[in-house]
Every structure is written in structure tokens, then in C-alpha cells.
Specification:
The protein is mainly β. Among the domains are: 143 residues, no CATH class; 111 residues, YVTN repeat-like/Quinoprotein amine dehydrogenase (Methylamine Dehydrogenase, Chain H, 7 Propeller). Helices cover 6% and strands 47% of the residues. The protein has 5 helices and 37 strands. Strands 4-5-6-7 form a 4-stranded antiparallel beta sheet, with no helix packed on it. A 4-stranded antiparallel beta sheet has the order 8-9-10-11, with no helix packed on it. A 4-stranded antiparallel beta sheet has the order 12-13-14-15, with no helix packed on it.
């Protein structure tokens, strides 16, 4: 079963009842608006019609190839309309209101339909509920949801058998968190089942998994979410930018300073107050703090930030630190224009200019086999620090669809949170 959406082509295996990896713009999916689809009766593919164009675009699933052409009148005559499909399934028509109402009591509409030749079932597309499979004899239905809560992803974190993705939503879009299976066969999203109006945040900045809970930094503060019930506890720390594990709680960076949420849910502000924190990295009991005035360090027993050794006289690095990461025994950070690193044993700090094609760097993720990935507003880069420092860039929109907000490594894959969705890349192939 093929389902065309604004952002990609969904492929549902009716035998295994699982989704296959979607076909997106990175695979050649048309950038234009898809307004119709016709199954290829003579092959294993589908014809897509684009708004304002007379011919069709054909996708061949076996070879994952694209071509343009015309569709025969016989194939067009076999297209099933929503009204004709409901006429074949009168029980579905009678239950339409119940089928099209979601758990938040929002109403949706059927937008497309397709019947299967070997079973008494009809598939309906909807405008926001997902794909609906209906048994036309019994009226029983299944809602086959697939995809993210919203197209934009602001923060991600590894999860059992997959990854969590928190939405960066525009005012008109849904807000929430989605679990995505590692093989992309299933998704499970939620908009905040524990509250009548759902999650109050729009912009997700950082996401952590600690025990069974999700910790999320947003413009509305910090949320601790139980992913089994979707109930949450909020902490009044507006404009939260970053999170890190602490021995006795969770470190939170905001535009107003550094705070600690203790295990008993108390919030403790650290000195100095009013400092804009941009990124955090916990290494053992030491906390590395990126700010708009450079890199700070909070060592065990200290009550306020100190400048790390070797940076006291480096006035050129008293700039915004966009991200901080640890690569083996090396601390790595990014400014708007440079990659900076030093061994944790106290060696001199080394700088390497970032390619302009990367844009502003926003995230770092170390590679277990060496090197690290850098996510930026204009692309995704892989950097090696030794023996000869080198950076190669995968640009937007050819290799990644949009600005990269966050990165996470899980097994053989690198996951990237972008403004146009979640991207999964084979990290071994990339690093080569």
C-alpha cells in the first residue's frame, strides 16, 4: 500500500502489517505538491501527479528509481474515490464520525481511498489522523499512524529499539514527542495525554533519557515526562537551552544562568546569575558549560564557574560556545566559526576553522571509532582531529533536508534532528 504525503511516500506491507522506510526528498521524492496517485498495475510502483503538471512521476519500488510519463486512461479509470469507497463499505460510512475523531476529540476527513483485490478491506487516507484500514464487511477499523507529531524536530535522544524526537512546532502545528523504531517500521507519538490542552511547549532544545523518564528543555521551561502515561512535571526555568546529567539530579542551562534540579525536585540556582548558557557537557562530576562569553567549568566542590586552564588568556575564545562534546579524552567545542579542542589532561587548545558551507554549528556528536559529527544550519559535517585535522560537509538540501538542530548516535546509525524531519544515516558509511 502506497500513501503519498506532503513530505514523502509511505509504504505499508499488508502481510507483515509494518511500515517500510519512507521515501523522502533525499530519495528523490518530488518537491512539488502531490495531488493524486495511481497504482502501477503492471509493475511494483506508483504514479504520482503533481499540482500544475500534466504528466505523472513514476516511482519504481524495486529499483527505487524515478521517471516521468503518462498514465493510461484504463489505469485512471480504476482510481477509487472516497465517495465510491464509502459506498462499498456502508458500515464505515455510518461510523465515519467515530472513525475520524482522534483521542483529543479533533475531527478529520477522508482524503483518499484504495481497495485491495484479495481482501475485504479498504484503506483511507486522512488529513492528520493517518492511514485508516477498514474491514468493509464488519466495519472494524485500525488507525495506522506513522510519522512525527510535527515536521520540525528540535531535540533527540536514544531510546530502547529506536530514538525519541521532540518537535519544534510552529504556532499552527502540533506539539509533542515521538518514538521512532530503529528500523523505521513504526512510530508512536503523543501530544501530552496527561493534560487537557496537551504539552504547552513549542520549541524543543535538548532531550535526555534518565531512567524511565524523558527530560526536555524548552522555551517554556523543563519537563519531566513519563512516556508510559505521558503525564509530566514542569519546572519553572523559562528559555531552557540545554541539559546534562548530575550526580544528584539534572543540570539545566537557560538564558538566565545555570541551575540544578535535585532528585527531590528542588531547583537550585548557581553563580554567576544572569549568564546565558548555550550548552552543557557532564564528564564525571565535572560540568563543562558553554556560554555567550566563552567556556566555563564547574568542578566538584565549587560554588561557581571558573575559566578552564589554558583559556584564561585566550580572549579570542570569549565568544558564544554553540556546543560542547567529549571525544575519548578530548574536550571539543564549537564557536560560530571554529572547532576548538584540548585533551582533558590539560594540553593546549587547538582551533580549526569551520567551513562556511556548514553555517552556524548547533550540535556535536562523537563517533565511537573516532572523529565527530557537527550539525549546522547549512549542513552536516564529519571532522577528524588527528593526525591531520579535516572537515567534510554534507550540504542542505542535497544530503540533509534542512538545518540540523541535534544529533544522536545509536548503533550503526547517526540520527539528525532537522527543521524538515528526522534523518537516519549510516554513520560508518559517512565516516568513510
Amino acid at each position: 500500500m502506497f500513501a503519498a504525503t506532503p513530505h514523502g511516500l509511505l509504504i505499508y506491507d499488508r502481510i507483515t502489517r509494518r511500515f517500510r522506510p519512507p521515501v523522502t526528498v533525499l530519495d528523490g521524492y518530488p518537491a512539488g505538491r502531490v495531488v493524486g496517485a495511481v497504482i502501477d498495475a503492471g509493475g511494483n510502483g506508483v504514479w504520482l501527479r503533481l499540482w500544475g503538471e500534466s504528466d505523472y512521476v513514476h516511482y519504481e519500488d524495486g529499483g527505487r528509481t524515478w521517471l516521468r510519463g503518462d498514465v493510461s486512461s484504463d489505469q485512471l479509470a480504476g482510481v477509487l474515490t472516497v465517495d465510491a469507497a464509502l459506498a462499498r463499505a456502508p458500515l464505515a460510512d455510518a461510523l465515519r464520525a467515530a472513525i475520524l475523531t482522534d483521542t483529543r476529540l479533533r475531527s478529520h476527513q477522508f482524503t483518499a481511498a484504495a481497495a485491495t483485490p484479495d481482501r475485504a478491506e479498504i484503506f483511507f487516507g486522512t488529513n492528520g489522523l493517518g492511514l485508516v484500514r477498514i474491514d468493509r464487511q464488519t466495519g472494524e477499523w485500525d488507525v495506522l499512524t506513522y510519522g512525527l507529531v510535527a515536521p520540525g524536530v528540535g531535540a533527540i535522544a536514544p531510546a530502547p529499539d529506536g530514538v525519541w524526537a521532540a518537535a519544534n512546532a510552529r504556532p499552527s502545528e502540533r506539539r509533542g514527542v515521538t518514538w521512532v523504531a530503529g528500523d523505521l517500521s513504526a512510530t508512536r507519538g503523543n501530544e501530552g495525554g496527561g493534560a487537557a490542552l496537551g504539552f504547552p511547549f513549542q520549541s524543543a532544545r535538548r532531550l535526555l533519557t534518565i531512567g524511565a523518564d524523558l527530560w526536555l528543555a524548552t522555551e517554556q521551561g523543563v519537563f519531566r515526562i513519563d512516556p508510559t502515561t505521558w503525564r509530566y512535571r514542569s519546572f519553572d526555568l523559562p528559555d531552557a537551552t540545554s541539559l546534562a546529567r548530575a550526580p544528584d539530579g539534572v543540570w539545566v542551562g537557560t538564558t538566565r544562568g545555570l541551575s540544578l534540579i535535585t532528585r527531590d525536585d528542588q531547583v537550585m540556582a548557581m553563580e554567576p546569575r544572569g549568564l546565558t548558557v548555550t550548552s552543557l557537557l557532564a564528564v564525571g562530576e565535572t560540568l563543562w558549560v558553554g556560554t555567550t562569553s566563552g567556556l566555563g567549568q564547574l568542578v566538584p566542590g565549587a560554588s561557581q564557574l571558573a575559566i578552564p586552564r589554558g583559556l584564561e588568556e585566550r580572549m579570542s575564545l570569549r565568544v558564544t560556545i554553540r556546543a560542547v562534546a567529549r571525544l575519548q579524552d578530548t574536550i571539543v567545542m564549537t564557536t560560530d566559526r571554529e572547532l576548538v579542542w584540548s585533551s582533558s589532561r590539560g594540553s593546549a587548545w587547538v582551533t580549526l576553522p569551520l567551513p562556511l558551507s556548514l553555517g552556524i554549528p548547533l550540535a556535536l556528536a562523537p563517533a565511537p571509532e573516532g572523529g565527530l559529527w557537527i550539525g549546522g544550519t547549512q549542513g552536516l559535517a564529519f571532522a577528524t582531529l588527528a593526525p591531520a585535522p579535516h572537515i567534510s560537509v554534507l550540504p542542505v538540501p542535497l544530503a540533509v533536508p534542512a538545518a540540523v538542530r541535534d544529533l544522536a548516535v545509536d548503533g550503526d546509525y547517526l540520527w539528525a534532528a532537522t527543521d524538515s524531519g528526522l534523518v537516519r544515516l549510516n554513520r560508518r558509511a559517512m565516516s568513510n
